[in-house]
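Revision sheet: structure tokens.
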Amino acid sequence: MRSTCLLLYLFVWVIFSPPIFSQVETDVESSYSIEKDTLPYIEDRSNLLNLRIYTLVKSNSVTIQQEDDNVVLRPNSPVSLGFGFNFKGLGLSLGFGLPVSKERQEKYGKTRRLDIQANLNTRRIVGLGYLQIYQGYYMANPGDFTEWNQPNYPTLPDMRTLSLGASAFYVFNHKKFSSKAAFTRTQIQRRSAGSLALGLYGNYDDVNSPEGLIP
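Predicted:
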């Protein structure tokens, strides 16, 4: 009797239960997957003018290490306000250091600097070159060597550094992976992709301080 009632209940539940659209959801997901697979990996937007405003702090510090002791020398780098654009295959950015307060100059000293960077972004080749010239440094950690209670840091106003560097690498999967999407934003990476890269880099650093490297 219980078996008969159970079978009858299952029969009625199947007949009168609301429909289940599991197959429809699968079709929607399948169509979405097909649509996603037909999207191009890279969408080019280089015909549009790309304008940007940015702030950054660039520096060129020097660390002198002897056994467990480190002397850290830093320039008094201000915050820079920059403007840039990208259009077609050209791009330019210019940054200008914001005025430094008198109190900050008294505390960290005065730094003069020239900082230039050039980038190359093509489908296959990504390159970078830079030139940094800084004059005027301060010792950032005098408390590691003596009881330094003064508000101003020891300075080396005549200390000068020169840094030159360049790097370039080849993108193997350039048909699916776009470096421009990350750096110049003149392209959009519509579908996820990565790439192996092979390249070279080199740099030259020179430090000159008539007063020595220890203030």
